[in-house]
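In line with agreed milestones, the collection of sequences with tokenised folds has grown. One record among many is set out beneath this paragraph:
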Amino acid sequence: MMSAKQIPALTAALLCVLLAGCIKNDLPYPKIPQNITRLAARGESSPAKIDSTAYTATIYLGEEVNIYAVEFDEFAYTPGATADPDLLEGTYDLSVPMVVTLTHYQKYQWVIRAEQEIERRFAVEGEIGTSVIDAVGHRVIVTVPETADLTSLTLTDIKLGPAGITTMVPDLKPGPIDLSKPLRVTVTAHGHSEDWTIYCEKSKTLVATSAVDAWSRVVWAYGTGPADDKGGFRFRRKGETQWTDVAPSEVNQTGGSFSACIAHLEPLTEYEVQAVAGENVGSVVTVRTQATEVLPDGSFDQWWLDKKVWCPWAEGGERFWDTGNTGAATLGESNVQPSDNVPPGLTGQSAKLETKFVGLFGIGKLAAGSIFTGSFKKVDGTNGILDFGRPWSVRPTRLRGYYNYTTAPIDYASTELAVLKGRPDTCAIYIALTDWTAPFEIRTNPKNRQLFDPSSPAVIAYGELNRGDNTDGWEEFEITLNYRSTSRVPTYIQITSAASKYGDYFTGGTGATLYVDQYSLEYDY
């Protein structure tokens, strides 16, 4: 029999049991970002760009792909999530952006966009410059001399849609064409039609200096003139009377448009440039060349030791370069260090980049030795988050330096690069100029990986060196920058050197070692 003291305790216990099923579980579900990790469309012209920060993916389609019925060969995302729709099933209209929802506890909406560049051309005999083709407004503008008879022009080239699968009404072909009034053409491909309008304008100006882009020691000049005349340029320092003709071999011409690179100029100097074609000349354009800039700490002579982390800049000084040492030192030692091994005849120090396994008893990760312009932000578990790029505004033509490489068999490889295991490792040195608005964040964590993409629209110029065998000592190298545009001005410079090309994927050969020294920039051709 219960005592009076036991009854209240029993009552409380019973209440707890009875009420337990009524208590609301208000613990939040874990917030785990769901990311697209791989995406590939059938007929793509280059790999997709996946941005796990903005939750966007851009695919690049070849011009003959039906953008209204795109098929996907690869579609992978964070394990455990579900996708709606599943892109591996069916076809999708990507003429406008589409939304894919990844769900695991929460929903994450990704926007998938497609970019498709279609080469379009339109030319008539004797036209001035090159026809303007407005793909968005579906119009073509042709310019001809004032004396031309618009009723009896000669069409020499036309392509307004994907090759081999496009029809036009009327069916325009090279030969006589009347452009005395706007000509309307229906262009059809993949069952979809666009109405185009072709306009023809007369111009009193036969030759024009259409653009002049001044770098530090070179100037890029662009002109237009009659398509049947050989175009060219002449230039002089402002204030001088004598013109210098650009050699005909230095002029590139397509139809009535021509261009040239004028080299061996002086920085911070005003020049006058003028297009010429036959007896006709264009307007005089005055430009001022840019300054040249020295690449900071390109000798790799400045180092200091912060506990276990070797830093490639003077203690207390301004940082331009950084390494992955902060990450490597969490499980081992710095795998980028100063070295007295320098090219013959030179003094000071070089940067020694070594690929190592960091950890104990087989538990850890491969750390590829690398040095880059930017800063190591923080460690993400056993992964790294970096800021790529340093502010930059001038346009060099080449990166020069010395390197000394010893390869090693790839003994660690990620799942997606397992095929490389056993092959010789490859070192990589590359330079890029971009118009980023801020340093580019690099993330090596496979769950939200974001790496540098040389094909990104933000990249203005790029050049690289890869080598998969030993150099047998020091060798001098030269990397030429290939520019996508001569008029775009960069905001950042990115230079990266790595002992293992695929180190961002934790793939490489233990012991692969790259020494680099005496990096410098050139500004002439």
In short: Residues 121-203 form a domain with the Immunoglobulin-like fold (CATH 2.60.40.4120).
